[in-house]
Design brief:
Layout lengths: L1 H8 L17 H15 L4 E11 L4 E12 L2 E6 L2 E5 L3 E6 L4 E6 L12 H4 L5 E11 L2 E10 L7 E9 L4 E9 L4 E11 L19 E4 L2
Parallel strand pairs: 6-12
Antiparallel strand pairs: 1-2, 1-11, 2-3, 3-4, 4-5, 5-6, 7-8, 8-9, 9-10, 10-11
């Protein structure tokens, strides 16, 4: 889980690489990504449900996990693969459900190992060259495909990310990351809602609900 988010984000919002110059990019891809960025950053909050799939044919792995995410400013909540993550902008709680434990640590967004699921929606903004591939119909939607290539390819564990954008709604519907080890990681957005009312309590772990939980404080 952590590795996957590091892959997608150590690039930009999870994780900043060197920003690329728009002047060197595919102008059609730039136009689409500019519109996508403007709309996404205009939301005061984001809620989404998604499926995450890891495929590695050589290892015989084909696994899909559902997930949910809520984001408001520098706060986020993520539920996926048997764990919950709560972040109020300064502290992050990682709740391992089956192990009945919660790990608490300080959150530093500039840390390259930091996790911020908003990267799923804005990772393309820096650290990439990009190219418009095509517009096609799928599931009754008109989708743009834009391929992203990390500028510092030696510093990351993947070589390509494919971004699929709803042409009408101007929202990401799917993203697939192609790892150098032959594995593919796909996020498929099942539902997306912007500007929802989300209480701040959503982003803090309520220990009183788990009186017997093991607490590991790493601060």
């Amino acid at each position: 889980m952590k590795t996957l988010f590091k892959n997608t984000a150590s690039i930009s919002l999870l994780f900043l690489l060197v920003a690329t110059s728009y002047a060197q990019q595919d102008p059609k891809a730039k136009s689409i990504l500019d519109k996508l960025s403007q709309k996404t950053r205009g939301y005061s909050s984001i809620k989404a449900e998604f499926n995450y799939t890891m495929l590695n044919e050589s290892e015989g792995i084909d696994e899909t996990q559902p997930g949910t995410v809520a984001i408001k400013g520098d706060k986020f909540y993520l539920k996926m693969a048997g764990q919950e993550m709560f972040c109020n902008g300064t502290t992050i709680w990682t709740h391992l459900v089956d192990a009945e434990e919660v790990k608490i640590s300080e959150y530093e967004e500039d840390d390259e190992d930091a996790i911020n699921p908003k990267s799923i929606f804005t990772m393309y903004e820096s650290g990439f060259n990009y190219k418009f591939i095509k517009t096609f119909s799928e599931g009754g939607k008109s989708l743009h495909q834009i391929d992203l290539y990390p500028t510092n390819v030696d510093d990351v564990s993947y070589h390509t990310a494919k971004l699929f954008i709803d042409e009408v709604k101007m929202e990401i519907v799917k993203m697939t990351i192609y790892s150098k080890d032959g594995a593919n990681y796909t996020y498929k957005i099942k539902s997306f809602t912007g500007n929802s009312t989300i209480p701040d309590s959503k982003f803090e772990f309520n220990q009183s609900q788990y009186p017997d939980i093991e607490v590991i404080d790493l601060r």
